[in-house]
Amino acid sequence: MKNIQQRVLAILLSSACLGAVAAPGEGGMPPPGPRPDMGAHGPHDRGPAFGHGVDLTDAQEDKVFAIMHAQEPKRREHTRTLHNSQEALRALGNAEQFDDARASSLAQAAGNALAALALLDARTDAQVRAVLTPEQRKQSADNRPRHHPRP
User: Fold this and answer.
1) What is the pLDDT of residue 68?
2) If both were cysteines, with which of 5, 27, 51, 106 could 89 make a disulfide (CB 3.0 to 4.6 Å apart)?
3) Which pTM was predicted?
4) Dihedral sign, CA of 52, 53, 54, 56?
5) Per-residue pLDDT of the chain (151 residues; tens, 9 = 90+)
6) Which residues lie below 8 Å from residue 88, measured CB to CB, with a gap of 6+?
7) Which region ranges are annotated with the description Disordered (predicted)?
8) Three-state SS for 25?
9) What residue numbers bound the domain in which 118 lies?
10) What is the number of domains present in the chain?
11) What is the predicted pLDDT for the residue at 52?
């Protein structure tokens, strides 16, 4: 009797797992691939500061490309530091011996990397907006999605 119960339980669990794999995006599981609210490589990989619907000249596109391309090495460096610090902090939290000084150092490194990313975003946004004409800046402001506060 116990063997039958174990088999039934195994079949039920298998079918539940197969259902989650067969229908990603349903039942609370996100579909594979990047989320629409993030860039292809995570939350710190984002597009230019202006919204959709702003038409750029070829010269402006070249300038925006150069700005985005120039900041990418620093973005990758800070993102890598943030990721490595968070991973090490998680590992330290699961370790047999917790080293408070090491945890504090890792948390500080993660915070510094996140602050550097925020500053890099602000600088990049300002540089890109400087390329736009006043009319394009107005279009950008009008087309920017509005964030509503959470209840």
Assistant:
1) 94
2) 106
3) 0.62
4) positive
5) 455 555 544 554 455 544 444 444 444 545 554 444 444 444 444 555 566 678 889 999 999 999 999 999 999 999 999 999 999 999 999 999 999 999 999 999 999 999 999 999 999 999 999 999 999 888 887 777 666 667 6
6) 106
7) 24-54, 130-151
8) coil
9) 74-131
10) 1
11) 63
- Which amino acid would we find at residue 66? A
Distance (Å, rounded) from C-alpha 114 to C-alpha 127? 20
What pLDDT is attached to residue 47? 54
| Spatial CA neighbour of 131 closest among 17, 73, 50 | 50
Using alpha carbons only, give the angle 81, 82, 85 rounded to the nearest 5 degrees.
80
Which residue type does 146 have?
Answer: R
CA-to-CA dists, residue 45 to 39, 57, 99, 108, 142, angstroms = 5, 24, 32, 22, 23
Calpha distance 141→126 (Å, rounded):
14
Would 107 be classed as within a structural domain? Answer: yes
Which residue, 66, 80, 60, 59, is CA-closest to 124?
66
Q: 61 in a domain, yes or no?
A: no
In this structure, are residues 44 and 79 in contact, taking their beta carbons and an 8 Å threshold? yes
Token pair for residue 9?
Answer: 């339980």
In the numeric block, which tokens belong to residue 57? 């000249």
39, two tokens: 């860039």
- Token couple for 69: 């391309």
